[in-house]
Amino acid sequence: MQVRSLFLLLALILVAATTEAGKNKKEKAKKDGSKCEDWHWGPCVPNSKDCGLGYREGTCKDESKKLKCKIPCNWKKQFGADCKYKFESWGGCSAQTGLKTRSGILKKALYNAQCEETVHVTKPCSSKIKSKSKGQ
C-alpha cells in the first residue's frame, strides 16, 4: 500500500513539473512576441562585402527589431535579394550585340520589398560550340 502511494505521489510530482515547464516556454514566447502587426522591414544588410550573413531591421510604431538574414552569393544584385522571379529560358544569341536575353516575372516579394513586376537580363553568348556527337 505504501509503495502504491509513493508511486502515485511521484507521478503527481512529475506531471506538475512538466506542466510548469510547458508554461515557462509559452510565457517566453509571449514576451518575445509583439502585439504590433504592421511591421515594415528594410533590406538585408550583409555583415561584410555584398553577400553572406547579415541582419534586417524592422519597425512598427515605436518598436524596432533586428532579424538575422542571409544573402546568397549568387543573387541577382540588380533586382535585390528580396525579389524572387520566375525566369523563362534564354533566347537565341543576337549577332549584332553578342548577347542572350531572357525575362522574369515577379513570383514573390519578401518583407514588403518594392520589386519590378517584369525584369530583363542579358549575358554574353557562349563562344564554345556544343557538339552532339557524344554517343556516336
TrEMBL record:
Residues 1-21 form the signal peptide. Residues 23-79 form the Pleiotrophin/Midkine N-terminal domain. It comes from the Eukaryota. One of its GO terms (molecular function) is growth factor activity. SUPFAM superfamilies: Midkine (SSF57288). The keyword Signal applies. It is found in: Secreted. Keywords: Developmental protein, Disulfide bond, Growth factor, Heparin-binding, Mitogen, Secreted, Signal. Secreted protein that functions as cytokine and growth factor and mediates its signal through cell-surface proteoglycan and non-proteoglycan receptors. Regulates many processes like inflammatory response, cell proliferation, cell adhesion, cell growth, cell survival, tissue regeneration, cell differentiation and cell migration. This is Midkine.
